[in-house]
Amino acid sequence: MLKFDINKTNYKKIHFIGIGGISMSGLAEILLNRNYIVTGSDMNNSKIIEKLINNGATIHIGHNSKNIEDVDLIVYTSAIGEDNPEYVFAKKNKIPMMDRATFLGELMKSYKDSIAVAGTHGKTTTTGMIASILYISLLDSTILLGGELDSIGGNVKIGDNKLLLTEACEYKENFLKFNPTIGIILNIDEDHLDYFTGMDHIKDTFKKFNNLSLEGGYSIVNGDDENVKTIINTAKNIITFGLNSNNNYYATNIKYNDKGYGEYDLYINNKFIDHIKLNVIGEHNIYNSLSAIAATFISGVDIKTIKEGLKIYKGTHRRFEDKGIVQGIQLIDDYAHHPTEIKATLNSIGDKYNKIYCVFQPHTYTRTKSLLKEFGKCFKGSDKIIITDIYAAREKNTGIVNSKQLVDEINKNGQDSIFIETFDEVVNFLEKTVDKGDLIITIGAGDVYKVGDMFKTKINK
């Protein structure tokens, strides 16, 4: 098996296929900081790519075999197909290649400790919370985030070689290629059913991930999650968190202020530790914060610093992001793309708005098809649900499902939903319909966030 040690120079020039991705760009930035020659390619330009170019990377827009003729190692994202011309050329000419997850797993070996945040929901938020704590702590950590966090100036922060923090995605079992000393499992739910055969397959994969961090490290798991309970063992280095007092880390006396921000009393092993205040909404973020506390506390961060780090964390971009108020209409954007996430997001809003207009862009055909009934029930609390075309991401439209079927499923459950195909048409509809005191929330992992920006531009003209 191919190995990579960032402290050695076996590979001086490294090329990233799909370098504009949030994780790929972070890896590229780490290598640039270590004086590697970094090249890359992607289909479209972006702010992330421009930042890498300014830091010394050579990046081609468009994929071409000529881009990789003199490179020592290729790192590729699983989002590319095997017909990608650079992938085909590299394979034919036996240029060393690693997929992104394998490369990150190898990189983790270069750090004394590493925290990997896994779970079907909440990975980016929890990683952001931990990042905020580490950023103000004495630990000079390297951070790879699946979103953008203002306090660290984007999606990556370069630190020393003592601690690496990263998200750990279960898709295609990629996180089994990692080498964490602290593994976190936030929750386990049905998702990525274009790869997994069902819940048993998903739980078995998380069980293997759980065992990775138990080899000399710690596994921090949600002790209230029914699916998580079935995959953990009773090893002494299992640490549980939740709202029940049988967990190692638990929250009690939970309250929410008028903005929906939570606060609670923190107990560790049945001992009162301190009162914690958050600047993000909802019960799901109580859970996320407990796992962040556990991970940083066992890493040596004191409770006072942990409290301050959680208090300054106000969310990463696209995670219940406040996009402003325009003519009395509140705009919010959220990355939720699974029924459980959507339900949690909408439940967190409260009753301070006259009407809630939810604009949802389904993400991938297989997820929409396999969870159609669940999607039909998760929009409770919305007064009007606008469904746009499905965002294909890595998939091709085979006709297995469409957005109108989702509209029918939602309406069957007694809600008011309509299909509007294009963003321009959505904005036109909203302009004629919403009033002062209403909320427009865009939801989805694709590019639906553009609707809020377009609405704001049009209204302000």
TrEMBL record:
Assigned keywords, A-Z: ATP-binding, Cell cycle, Cell division, Cell shape, Cell wall biogenesis/degradation, Cytoplasm, Ligase, Nucleotide-binding, Peptidoglycan synthesis
Entry's localization field: Cytoplasm
Listed transmembrane segments: none
SUPFAM superfamilies, per database record: MurCD N-terminal domain (SSF51984), MurD-like peptide ligases, catalytic domain (SSF53623), MurD-like peptide ligases, peptide-binding domain (SSF53244)
BP GO annotations: cell division; cell wall organization; peptidoglycan biosynthetic process; regulation of cell shape
Chief localisation class: cytoplasm
Entry binding sites for ATP: 119-125
Catalytic activity of the protein: UDP-N-acetyl-alpha-D-muramate + L-alanine + ATP = UDP-N-acetyl-alpha-D-muramoyl-L-alanine + ADP + phosphate + H(+)
Residue ranges of domain Mur ligase central in the record: 117-295
Function, in words: Cell wall formation.
NCBIfam families the UniProt entry points to: murC
Name under which the protein is recorded: UDP-N-acetylmuramate--L-alanine ligase
